[in-house]
Write a structure and sequence with these properties.
Blueprint: H1 2-20, H2 24-59, H3 65-73, E1 99-100, E2 108-112, E3 115-120, E4 125-130
Antiparallel strand pairs: 1-2, 2-3, 3-4
């Protein structure tokens, strides 16, 4: 039993160190994946979730600064309330209305839970959450 916990700890913290040096998306994905995995599967789920989240997060490309600036400059709309956590790499529900980014059609945005969120309009996957 101790060997399993040590192995899980090494994998989890090794993944954390590797993702810390990677892109912001990988780190965010790893943290979100670890949190979700821990809720579902305890310590083992946290390790697996961290690895999966890091891979998913690193696959997402951070939007260009012009897209971020565009979204930040748009007037505040009514916020949609979503019960699930808003995590980079996770899709939003399909009933959330997305607004196109005029500067770059590869991205859309919306306001969810009082946060501006940049989304891939094809998959509804959260690309970045703006503070």
């Amino acid at each position: 039993m101790k060997t399993k916990l040590i192995t899980i700890g090494v994998v989890f913290f090794g993944t954390f160190a590797a993702a810390a040096s990677a892109q912001e998306g990988a780190t965010t994905g790893m943290i979100g994946g670890a949190a979700t995995g821990a809720i579902v599967g305890g310590p083992v789920g946290a390790g697996v979730g961290a690895v999966v989240g890091a891979v998913a997060g690193s696959a997402l490309e951070r939007p260009p600064e012009k897209v971020i600036t565009y979204v930040q400059q748009q007037p505040v709309q009514q916020s949609v309330v979503v019960q699930q956590p808003i995590v980079v790499g996770k899709p939003l529900p399909r009933d959330v209305v997305l607004m196109p980014v005029a500067e770059d059609p590869r991205y859309s945005y919306t306001i969810v839970n009082d946060q501006r969120v940049i989304v891939d309009p094809k998959t509804y996957t959260v690309v970045q959450v703006l503070q």
